[in-house]
Specification:
about 525 residues; alpha+beta; 13 helices; 14 strands; about 35% helix
Length: about 525
């Protein structure tokens, strides 16, 4: 390309930009069309957070602006046509209702200049047998100008099955022609008025419907092959989870900020390294068991990450603070000096197995767990010392509708023995959590802070189950990850058995003790 060619290309790019409506109009058009942010963002090749910015007033530029304007123009035209059709339908329905409403004043029998007030003119013919009135369809005993009809409005009462339109009072057409008077035909749009008009781009009625229809579609596409349908659904679990999240966020009080500024402590130090956040993953085995031989039950905690979606998540961009007491109205990550833990013999350390002493960055669930254990109810440790924090305003219910939709689908799948849906739902919430950090598989949401907090909440939930077992007289033998708890004793009096997220199931049983050759971890 010559220098002049390059200049010509620049000149070609200069021109009037596509017109865009105001931000609130852009959002209104999308919501009226029942399109999610994720859907529109995918079609335009941008992230939902970028689309949120455009709907807040920021403007795109270049080719993407032209595409966005084209989409908005199309939505506007389609919705305008739909609105016009609905208006015509409503007007026609109202007109028909006015004819058939039963108001006698709107139905006037045909009159004639030759017919007197009392109906005794020359055109009135008394009938020996009643005939249907041409106006209302009910039996009439007179014929006027050759047509059976009632003589007074009080007698002429419309029925719901026949409702001819009444001509204006004094109309002469019926008396100058032998043809019966013209009656009103079916109102335009009457058939559509039986139900609400369909919306453009109409989606399923609720979040659970998205899951059900995705499964049904996969089974249909693969002709009932369960393995092939499951494999296909697992591949699309991440974008489907994001679509479900967007659906559950409609009408929510808070907007999800998908790509906020992130402090360096939440960024990976190297390409394959980790950031500076400590998640407090339990990895603990009891060193000494009570004397004797014992049967140990390895319990499996159901839906650990699904339950952990209910946690205090920061809403906006994290803000730095130092030397402040913990504010329960905010959430984030904190640099703390953890307290000494003196119960290692019977319970795992709440911050997990850490070799290096001194301050470390922990998440909100870990900090709240330590504060709880240091409180007057438990008094198991001293309060942690908070040095600095990155926090934002918080809510525990940011992902609650998302969690409930997945939980309901999971419960139904278990009840119906639907393995396809069950595996699909598991993949949705597990991959949702694992890819919201620095991942090439999910570019719609970049919240490494959320990822760490949800994982830590799962670890904290397991630790609290270990504490409950200990307090109820069970001997805790092992606690691992998010879902593995080994205990000695009658665990069924402490935990409900089942597959629900509030229940546990048996993963394994083995014998351990001073006289047993098996190690506490064998048999897994």
């Amino acid at each position: 390309m010559s220098d002049f060619d390059a200049i010509d290309s620049l000149l070609d790019a200069v021109g009037p930009q596509a017109e865009l409506p105001p931000g609130h109009v852009r959002r209104e058009l999308r919501e009226r069309a029942r399109l999610s942010k994720a859907q529109v963002a995918r079609a335009l090749g941008v992230s939902p957070s970028t689309l949120s910015g455009w709907e807040s007033g920021r403007d795109p530029a270049g080719e993407i602006r032209t595409k966005y304007a084209y989409l908005l123009d199309g939505l506007n035209a389609k919705l305008a046509t739909e609105t016009e059709t609905e208006t015509e339908t409503e007007a026609a329905s109202a007109a028909e209702q006015s004819v058939t409403s039963g108001t006698v004043a709107t139905v006037t029998p045909l009159s004639s200049p030759d017919l007197g007030q009392d109906g005794d003119g020359d055109d009135v013919e008394l009938l020996a047998a009643r005939e249907p009135c041409v106006l209302c369809g009910r039996p009439a005993g007179q014929r006027v100008a050759g047509f059976a009809q009632h003589l007074t409005p009080a007698d002429c009462r419309p029925t719901t099955t026949a409702a001819p339109a009444a001509p204006p009072a004094g109309q002469l057409t019926a008396h100058t022609s032998k043809a019966p008077p013209r009656t009103a035909g079916p109102a335009r749009g009457t058939e559509r008025s039986k139900g609400p008009a369909p919306r453009a781009f109409q989606e399923p009625s609720g979040p659970v419907d998205l899951i059900r229809e995705a499964v049904q579609g996969a089974l249909t596409e693969h002709r009932g092959d369960v393995d092939a349908a499951t494999a296909a659904l697992l591949k699309r679990a991440i974008p489907d989870a994001m679509r479900l999240l967007d659906e559950t966020r409609k009408g929510a009080r808070y907007d999800v900020i998908a790509h906020p500024w992130i402090p360096d402590i939440l960024k990976k130090q190297t390409a394959r390294g980790a950031d500076q956040i400590w998640e407090a993953r339990p990895k603990w085995t009891r060193h000494e068991l009570p004397p004797g031989r014992h049967q140990v039950t390895a319990l499996d905690i159901n839906g650990a990450y699904l339950s952990a979606l209910k946690t205090h998540l920061p809403l906006g961009q994290l803000e730095h603070s130092t030397g402040l007491a913990h504010d329960r109205r905010r959430s984030g990550v904190h640099l703390i000096t953890p307290p000494e833990w003196e119960h290692e013999a019977v319970l795992p350390n709440p911050i997990g197995q850490r070799d290096e002493p001194g301050p470390l960055w922990v998440t909100e669930p870990t900090l709240r767990l330590l504060l709880r254990l240091s409180g007057p109810k438990h008094q198991l440790c001293e309060p942690p010392q908070i040095h600095e924090s990155y926090t934002s305003g918080t809510t525990e219910n940011l992902l609650e509708k998302f969690r409930i939709a997945l939980k309901d689908a999971r419960d139904t799948a278990i009840e119906q023995g639907d393995t396809v849906t069950l595996e699909y739902v598991k993949a949705m919430y597990s991959k949702f959590v694992s890819t919201m950090g620095e991942s090439n598989y999910n570019r719609e949401l970049y919240r490494p802070d959320w990822m760490h907090l949800i994982r830590s909440q799962a670890f904290a939930n397991l630790w609290l189950k270990a504490l409950k077992a200990h307090d109820e007289g069970l001997a805790v033998v092992r606690a691992m990850g998010t879902d593995e708890l080994h205990v000695i004793g009658d665990w069924r009096r402490v935990f409900a058995e089942g597959r629900a997220v509030t229940e546990v199931k048996v993963k394994d049983t083995y014998t351990a003790g001073t006289d047993a050759a098996e190690h506490a971890g064998e048999g897994e």
